[in-house]
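Example record for the data management plan.
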Amino acid sequence: MKLGIPELRRKRAIAGFTLLETLVVIVIIAILFAIAAPSWDALMNRQRVNVIRDQALQIVRKAQNDARTTRVPKVVIFDPTATVPRAAILSVERNNLGQTVNNINPANITNWQTLGNGDIKEGFVEFSTTPANGQLVFNSSGFVDSLSLNQVDPNLGRNPETATSRVFAFKVKQRNTSDATYRCVIVKTILGAVDVAEGDRCAGV
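Corresponding structural encoding:
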C-alpha cells in the first residue's frame, strides 16, 4: 500500500531525527557554547576574586570580635607574597603591643588560612595591603590599635585633608586584568568602620 505524504511525514517524525538533523543540532549547540564560554569563564573568575575579598573581610571582623569578647588584643596578618593569598589571626601581648607586631615572623605562623576555598590557582590573583606589612591590630576593646599604626605610618587614620583617610586596606584582582576589576576592603577608622568597594573606588588603596 502506497503511503500518502502526511502519513509519510508522521512516520518520519516517529522514527526520530535523521543523521543530518542531529549533526545540525550538535553544530548549533557547539556554536552557542563557544559564544557563552568566555562570558561564563569571566563570571566565574570574578566570583573567585569576590570570595577572596569576602573571606578576608570575615577574618578581619572575626579578629575584631575575638579581641572584644576575650579582652585580648589580636592581630590579623595577611601574606600578599604567597602564591595564593593567606591570612592568620594571632594573639598579641598586652604590654608590648607594637613591638610584638613588628617582630612577627611569617615563617613561624602555623595557623595560616588560605583564601579562596581551595579554588584559586597559584598566581591567579594580585593581592596587596596598605600598609604593606599586611598587619592590622585590634586592642582589647576591639578598636584598631593606634600605637601599631603610628609605628608603621603616623599619617594613617588621620584627617583625610592632611593625610590618608584609612587605617588599613587590602585589594585583590585577577592577574593581568584592568584595575577596574579590583575588589577591596577599606578599614576607615580606628573604630573599625569598613567600606567594601570595587573598581575605581579601590584606586590608591
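Summary line stored alongside the record: Confidence is low (pLDDT under 50) at residues 154-164.
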